[in-house]
Design brief:
By secondary structure, this protein is of the alpha+beta class. It is built from 46 helices and 35 strands. A hairpin with a 2-residue loop joins strand 2 and strand 3. The longest helix is centred in the middle third of the chain and has 39 residues. It is found in: Membrane.
């Protein structure tokens, strides 16, 4: 633990099978540690963290003061016991969290691995593996450390890996050993291997490795293509051997994981500031009272010296004032009692249990409940503004299914009428015994077309069975296992298999299929490989009859340009089909073929051979050759594949967007795939004004593209402002001027301004989206570019970052935290998301198929992305609301309690005398007022959970931090000070002249103390009853029980019995009985209570009537519906599927322009790999014949292209016209189903049911619902218009005169008009009032 850290490495030297040599470099072991503490460091480190809380330091200081008898009027145990309790509870919680981290680390470190030691394989724990060891990996095993691949059971040292833990991609990748080590398959050969590797030091670059292998006086270059990284899984490879280069914390996985951070909520940070302020206020009060003490002792106190002398240490009035100051600091410290922090921890614990117990967040399929893995961040769930999400496994299931297709102008796979009978899943087994039983398809017309021998259909599926790079393994007769490099290809080949065109096997020169039960072997003449520039792949085959044909599949944007002119009519029809598929978020490919004559083939083959042998510009020459042959093709049709989204993803994203939460997708996938998923989950829609693609390769180009996008957004927003009335926010009036700004850094060609004012960019309508590639993002994250990127990206409704590394994900999160000061949430399911999860304010882990690394690093976990909606809008909003109400009330009641001592100081000669009995002071925060506020903090709610989901705008107060901030704090303490003034001066004024019925005066200290204490408890109990919005049995028991407990304890403590036992401890004997029997005392208490409470009631009634909040309006509409509900009046429609649901169709009208749905998760190089034969087990004769004709340079080509490829952006739909919104000109196009209240203002108000109205109906109600003639509908018109205009569309609200800084209140005129119209007409109709859909 105390070992000296080695100096930073400049290069790493590793010698195989030589532990002694490698140990002298002190390389890290393979043991990982994600925990924060150990047995030795736990106590000091944890206490240090806890005393970073200002309040804990404050209480420690008070404890020290209370240990000084000359200034302490309260016992020291009143502070040390609660402080020790708080520290202990927090320490136990932190220890428990860290124990689970230790447990996880132990599970990983104790995994078994086969290590080659002294010529034999021995089982070793992962943590005992050392740099320089040779490890054997078997199929489906995790890679234990970063290894140099030495040899493999596959030909030519190949192996296949899955890198989902690293980059989120589940498609297989190929790795190959250096040729000189690929033959070391035997253990004896490997045991004698003594090569030395010199390479770069540990770093976090996942896609780069530079090194050299020195062996037998020769050196061999090493690259990333030779490396197996920790976290990868070996697939489709029987076994392989690797040399450990980096271990444990030095591995690239751990270098990208980031450190565990101590997270605090914004409320915690605010409370730290407030505690400092309160301490300053406390010091001021102490100074005032100390000055008063000095003056009093000098002017008046000397008169009492004869019979009330100073204590021995005090010899003058200044020293007396000094001691008085510290005494008052102790007495008045209850303005921030330590019970506040105990209560906060208890409330947070309760909220965490509510999340754990929520059955609506329980996934029955995988038997996984939601889990709050921390208790300190619950209220921050109600303040999230930015969500950063992984794609694969988080938004999608990463399961591809063949969904639809278009063949010769006929579309297949269309969904049936949802109201009609549902079609049955097709059974392919009677037709095709080789069919995949797991394949799902429902349109029987396609199967019939295949059966009757339709020529076009047969050609279509023949192409799918031939044009691919899939490998087939037939374990037994008819049991086929396809090894697809991408799930897309696997889905297409499986579809062809089920429709009678079964791919059986391949050799480097042949493809064998079974077509309609007949075995057919094609000669494979050439594979025209796929890459990101070509966006297509082709094969040239010769059939058994000698005919040569080219089959091609690829993006419609590139393939349709290469068709023969005779295909124009078919191309138009197919384009419409592609348009529909893309609109449904499906991944599309177009298919075409071309018949070749023997002469054409021979001529092209010669050109191809010469291009393949070119010494320079080989790739460009090959691409040009491919371009020549892929012309004048005949269109066959198109395919549409669905990358299955997780259940409820589109609805969840729609609801979160309406809650003003911006969602960014950070994925390692390629651009086309990520964009397609963006459309599938409705982050991107064809109704968006424009989708900007940032793909520059230099800082200058990225800056230019970002500025162009920003300029375009401002220009289009201004244009729309000029055309549409009712849209609030004239940008010309918000500080923007036509010629404002100057170009930066001498970029004279750029006439766009520097980043415009934030208020201008914030007012841009969110109808834009931004897509940025990883290489562009690397430039955008540079220090001088961050402001450019943030100002552009944050003005967009959706942002998608493609090809990003795990570290870049964390950097993006940190950038938003730094520049926007907003609460961020990161959600992911793989190890590649860990650094992002740790960087965000809140980390959420999806317990999916990519391991549990993300869950272990997270603060909250569940199994489905859709649960995020309930976590934030229900649990998060309630937690924030409850915590804010709790804090407001807590500060109020303690200022009301403590400030009485301040006023009393002016009447007791500033002698630090307390008003109340010392036992009342001790029990006030622990017993009398603790349980009611705890019940409110744990159970309170303003609207039910269903309403929180129906009205996402209810979430905005948390984002704007409206419910507890410095202003609200000052209001609370002002109310508390007002209450203390009333509680002190009203009893003081009345009791000073009051007498008992016997004529005995009531103006004594103990009577005053009992009266004031009783009035205080009653006032704060009534106040919390007013503050509680949701009453449970527990609330009633705690509120009224605490009041009864006060009287019981007070009477017991002031009884003769206790006084007889402890005469020195209980001085208020009989005071309660004698005081509470006096009618004037009860009248005094009643008057003080009325003076305290009536202004609060009046203010709240006026506030609800004049300036109601959205929650007030929602509660009112709910009350109306409950009163008017009738059992027969159930609304039609299924269970609520989320506001803005788009699962049943598209929102609004589609634009005329078309976007490509092309997305193909494929990697270049597999074509050459297949034709080289290196991934196939061939007989020695066949291998010898084949090897003489083919180059072995495929891996070099793959390497070069991997580093030099670029992503060409797909065509965007920036020209599509926005769909009409339900409130004209008030909301952006995506929001045209932004509320269940949003619809025609003439539409009837539907009645409340257990499930909310169907949002599909809601989104189209403005066009489908005719005006209702019923009087009840007219009566509710005003309410419907108010809700339509104000609840979810602040722009429309403010245009009616209800201006509000937060944009979520309703104007006085609109509310009063609605209420008056409703009251005047509701009684005139027997029809129930219904809530507008």
């Amino acid at each position: 633990m105390f070992r000296k850290r080695p100096p930073p490495e400049e290069e790493r030297k590793v010698r195989a099978n030589d532990r002694e040599y490698n140990e002298k470099f002190q390389y890290a072991s393979n043991c990982i540690m994600t925990s924060k503490y150990n047995i030795v460091t736990f106590l000091p480190v944890n206490l240090f963290e806890q005393f970073q809380e200002v309040a804990n330091t404050y209480f420690l200081f008070l404890l020290i003061l209370q240990l000084i008898p000359q200034i302490s009027s309260l016992s020291w145990f009143t502070t040390i016991v609660p402080l020790a309790l708080v520290l202990s509870i927090t320490a136990v919680k932190d220890a428990t969290d860290d124990y689970f981290r230790h447990k996880s680390d132990s599970q990983v470190n104790n995994r078994q691995s086969q290590v080659l030691i002294r010529g034999s394989l021995q089982n070793e724990k992962w943590m005992n593996v050392r740099v320089g060891d040779i490890i054997k990996l078997e199929n489906n095993q995790f890679v234990a450390a970063d290894l140099l691949l030495l040899s493999s059971s596959e030909p030519h040292g190949l192996c296949y890996i899955e890198t989902a833990e690293l980059d989120g991609e589940s498609n297989m990748k190929v790795r190959q050993s250096v040729s000189v080590t690929s033959e070391l398959g035997d253990q004896n050969n490997l045991a004698s291997f003594d090569g030395e590797v010199v390479c770069e030091p540990p770093n976090n670059k996942l896609d780069r490795f530079c090194g050299t292998l020195y062996w037998r006086d020769k050196k061999y270059t090493l690259s990333n293509q030779n490396m197996l990284l920790r976290g990868c899984v070996l697939r489709n490879t029987e076994a392989c051997y690797g040399l450990v280069i980096f271990a444990g914390p030095d591995t690239k996985l751990m270098q990208n994981s980031g450190r565990t951070k101590f997270k605090r909520t914004s409320i915690d940070r605010l409370m730290n500031t407030l505690v400092l302020w309160i301490f300053g206020f406390l010091v001021c009060m102490g100074v005032i009272l100390a000055v008063g003490n000095a003056v009093w002792e000098r002017e008046v106190g000397f008169l009492f010296q004869s019979y009330l002398p100073w204590d021995p240490p005090v010899d003058n009035f200044l020293f007396s004032a000094f001691l008085s100051f510290w005494s008052y600091v102790i007495i008045l410290n209850t303005v921030v009692p330590i019970s506040l922090y105990v209560s906060v921890e208890v409330i947070r614990l309760g909220h965490s249990y509510f999340i754990n117990w929520d059955r609506q967040m329980f996934c029955s399929q995988c038997n996984t409940p939601a889990e709050a893995r921390t208790t300190t961040l619950n209220e921050e769930l109600g303040q999230v503004e930015y969500i950063f999400s992984d794609k694969t496994g988080t938004l999608t299931q990463n399961i591809m299914s063949f969904n639809k297709c278009s063949i010769n102008g006929q579309t297949y796979g269309e969904a049936s009428d949802p109201l009609g009978p549902q079609p049955k899943r097709l059974d392919f087994t009677p037709f095709n015994p080789l069919a995949d039983p797991d394949f799902c398809f429902y349109d029987d017309t396609l199967l019939e077309a295949v059966k009757v021998g339709d020529t076009h259909t047969h050609k279509f599926f023949r192409l799918l069975s031939l044009c691919h790079t899939v490998m087939s393994e037939e374990k037994s007769e008819g049991e086929l296992l396809y090894k697809a490099q991408s799930p897309d290809e696997g889905a297409l080949v499986t579809a062809a298999r089920n429709f009678g065109f079964v791919f059986r096997s391949r050799t480097p020169g042949t493809i064998t299929t079974t077509e309609m039960g007949r075995s057919v072997t094609y000669t494979l003449l050439a594979i025209l490989d796929f890459n990101n520039i070509r966006k297509r792949m082709s094969v040239i085959v010769r059939n058994s009859e000698g005919r040569i044909c080219l089959y091609c599949k690829g993006a419609d944007t590139v393939l349709l340009e290469r068709l023969h002119p005779c295909n124009q009519e078919l191309m138009n029809i197919t384009s419409d089909h592609l348009n529909e598929y893309a609109a449904d978020g499906l991944r599309t490919l177009a298919l075409a073929y071309r018949d070749l004559s023997e002469d054409e083939w021979e001529a092209w083959s010669e050109r191809h051979r010469s291009a393949a042998k070119a010494a320079s510009c080989r790739e460009d020459r090959l691409a040009a050759t491919y371009e020549q042959i892929e012309q004048d093709m005949v269109l066959l049709g198109a395919t549409a594949i669905e990358d299955k989204l997780q259940e409820g993803v589109p609805e969840t994203i729609a609801v979160l967007s309406l809650a003003n939460i911006k969602i960014w997708v950070l994925t390692g996938d390629k651009q086309e795939t990520a964009v397609n998923i963006g459309y599938s989950c409705k982050m991107l829609t064809d109704d968006m004004t424009e989708v900007f693609i940032i793909s520059g390769h230099t800082v200058q180009s990225v800056r230019q593209e970002l500025r162009r996008a920003r300029d375009r957004m401002i220009e289009m927003s201004r244009t729309r402002d000029g055309k549409e009335e009712g849209v609030e926010g004239c940008f010309m009036g918000n500080g923007f001027r036509e010629g404002q700004g100057d170009s930066r850094g001498g970029e004279k060609q750029l006439q766009c301004p520097p980043p415009p004012p934030s208020n201008l960019m914030d007012n841009i309508s969110g109808e834009f989206a931004l897509v940025i590639n990883g290489h562009s993002l690397a430039h955008a994250l540079e220090a001088d570019m961050e402001t450019e990127f943030v100002s552009t990206a944050c003005a967009c409704k959706a942002v998608i970052c493609c090809r990003v590394t795990p570290l870049q994900k964390a950097q993006v999160v940190e950038m938003i935290k730094k520049h926007k000061k907003a609460v961020t949430l990161a959600i992911g399911d793989g190890a590649n998301d860990v650094s992002m999860i740790k960087s965000a304010h809140i980390g959420v882990g999806i317990s999916g198929q990519e391991g549990i690394q993300a869950v272990l690093a997270s603060d909250y976990s569940f199994s489905q992305f859709r649960f995020l909606q309930r976590l934030l809008l229900v649990h998060g909003r309630w937690s924030y609301l409850r915590m804010c109400r709790f804090l407001c009330y807590f500060f109020y009641k303690n200022f009301a309690f403590t400030m009485v001592h301040f006023w009393f100081g002016f009447y007791c000669g500033f002698s630090a005398q307390t008003v109340y009995d010392q036992y009342f002071i001790t029990l006030y925060n622990i017993v009398y007022t603790s349980l009611p506020v705890l019940a409110m903090g744990i159970f309170d709610q303003d609207v039910p959970d269903q309403r929180s989901l129906e009205y996402p705008k209810l979430y905005e107060p948390g984002q704007l931090n409206l419910l507890f901030n410095k202003r609200e704090f000052f209001i609370c303490i002002a109310q508390g000070i007002y209450t203390s003034v009333v509680l002190f001066f009203v009893p003081c004024a009345i009791l000073s002249d009051a007498t008992q019925s016997t004529g005995v005066p009531l103006a004594d200290y103990q009577t005053f103390a009992v009266t004031t204490a009783t009035a205080l408890v009653i006032v704060v109990s009534v106040q919390i009853a007013l503050d509680t919005g949701f009453w449970t049995v527990i609330n009633h028991v705690f509120v009224w029980g605490s009041l009864g407990l006060y009287f019981s304890i007070m009477l017991a403590l002031q009884s003769q019995t206790l006084f007889g036992i402890f005469p020195n401890q209980f001085h208020f004997v009989g005071s309660a009985q004698s005081t509470l029997l006096q009618p004037v005392v009860w009248l005094t208490i009643a008057l003080a209570t009325a003076i305290c409470i009536v202004p609060v009631l009046a203010f709240r009634f006026l506030k609800v009537d004049l300036k109601p909040q959205l929650s007030d309006t929602v509660r009112y509409t709910q009350l109306v519906r409950q009163k008017k509900r009738k059992p027969a009046g159930r609304s039609v429609g299924g269970a609520w599927r989320g506001v803005g649901s788009v699962s049943e169709g598209r929102l609004g009208a589609r634009g005329s322009s078309r976007r490509s749905g092309y997305a193909f998760a494929h990697t270049e190089g597999f074509g050459e790999l297949i034709t080289s034969g290196k991934n196939m087990r061939l007989s020695s004769l066949a291998m010898a014949t084949f090897a003489s004709r083919h180059s072995s340079s495929w891996i070099d080509t793959l390497r070069r292209k991997k580093h030099s490829h670029t992503n060409t952006p797909p065509s965007a739909s920036g020209e599509s016209s926005p769909a009409p919104s339900c409130v004209s000109g008030s909301i952006p196009p995506l929001s045209n189903s932004s509320s269940v209240l949003c619809g025609s203002q003439d539409a009837p108000i539907e009645e409340e049911t257990g499930a909310a109205p169907d949002t599909q109906t809601a989104s189209t109600s403005s066009t489908q619902n005719p005006p209702a003639p019923a009087p009840a509908s007219e009566a509710a018109d005003g309410l419907a218009q108010t809700l339509n205009a104000g609840v979810l569309t602040p722009a429309a609200l403010r245009s009616q005169g209800g201006d509000s800084p937060g944009g979520w209140t309703i104007s006085l005129g609109a509310v009063q008009e609605a209420l008056l119209r409703w009251k005047g007409r509701a009684s005139a109709s027997n029809s129930p009032v219904k809530l507008a859909e």
